[in-house]
Design brief:
The protein has 2 helices and 18 strands. The protein is mostly beta strands. The chain has a 5-stranded mixed sheet with strand order 2-9-8-4-5, with no helix packed on it. It has a 5-stranded mixed sheet with strand order 11-18-17-13-14, with no helix packed on it. Strand 15 and strand 16 form a beta hairpin.
């Protein structure tokens, strides 16, 4: 065989292999075209963790979804709580702004009792896609009532921070889950002297965030306030004991890139790294 024939033969073989790979890839892509599982809504957090113990008997249950839900699909038939075979009477509501469903028991839970909460796969997102399967978690109650006010664990930025980027949101991490209906611009305000800054308030898990409508003014002192209108999920609700106030001064720069992401709200995620990831010491993202 001539050298040129060998080269042409090898080229044909490589082309065949490449085309075969592309066909398999396309077939796999076509097979995976059904994205019903990928786009199905998910419960990404609950105010009471699975297998929790010593849960106060006077609390609501909350479940946060990773996307907007169909409120009509969340009701007393699709969000249930039971102690063994005994169903708990209660009301189910949904907060559109935070994607949080609430179960409010008609009376206090019994003490020292194992309860199971279930959100059924009949619950759908705003586009009509249901959960892939039932979401179930359980907890055991204590004998005590929740009479403690929520507190602020940390803020972003910290009190008296300087050179704060003009395009960043302001947030506070709370000690416990809040009633999402109280996470509003009435209860989380930002001021520049006497000027009330326009914006929206977002709430997820235990993080409450103020998102200004426009960039902040450079080299300016701002004051953020969380009011006593903010409450937890106890029945009756416990408000912040006092208004929580902190201040910061802006710089002159606009931060590059998106705001920080609360990984608790990220749903499905992956961390990519060429090098540098290790499991020593063992750690996790929660």
């Amino acid at each position: 065989m001539k050298t040129t024939d060998k080269i042409h033969s090898r080229a044909k073989w490589m082309m065949t292999l490449l085309l075969s790979t592309l066909v398999v890839s396309c077939n796999n892509h076509s097979h995976n075209g059904d994205t019903s599982t990928e786009t199905a809504p998910q419960v990404i957090s609950t105010n009471i963790e699975d297998q929790a113990v010593d849960v106060p008997i006077n609390t609501k249950l909350s479940a946060t979804f990773n996307q907007a839900m169909d409120p009509t699909s969340l009701n007393e038939l699709s969000f249930k709580v039971a102690a063994g075979e005994t169903a708990v009477d209660g009301l189910v509501s949904y907060d559109n702004a935070s994607n949080i469903a609430l179960f409010t028991p008609a009376t206090d839970f019994s003490s020292a009792t194992l309860y199971t909460a279930t959100i059924s796969s009949s619950v759908k997102n705003a586009l009509g896609t249901p959960l892939a399967s039932d979401f179930v978690w359980s907890f055991t109650t204590a004998a005590a009532l929740d009479i403690s006010s929520p507190t602020v664990s940390s803020t972003f930025p910290v009190d008296f921070a300087i050179n704060f980027a003009l395009n960043r949101n302001i947030s506070a991490e709370m000690s416990e889950a809040l009633d999402p209906a109280t996470a509003t611009t009435n209860n989380f305000t930002l001021t520049n002297g006497t000027e009330l800054i326009a914006g929206t308030v977002h709430y997820t898990d235990t993080t409450i965030t103020f998102d200004p409508d426009s960039d902040l003014v450079a080299t300016t002192l701002y004051t953020a306030t969380l009011t006593t209108g903010i409450t937890d999920l106890a029945i009756p609700a416990n408000p912040l004991a006092v208004n929580f106030v902190w201040s910061f001064t802006t710089g002159t720069d606009v931060a590059a890139g998106p705001d920080m992401v609360n990984l608790r709200t990220a749903g499905n995620m992956v961390i990519l790294s060429k090098t540098g990831i290790t499991n020593v010491p063992i750690s996790s993202i929660t």
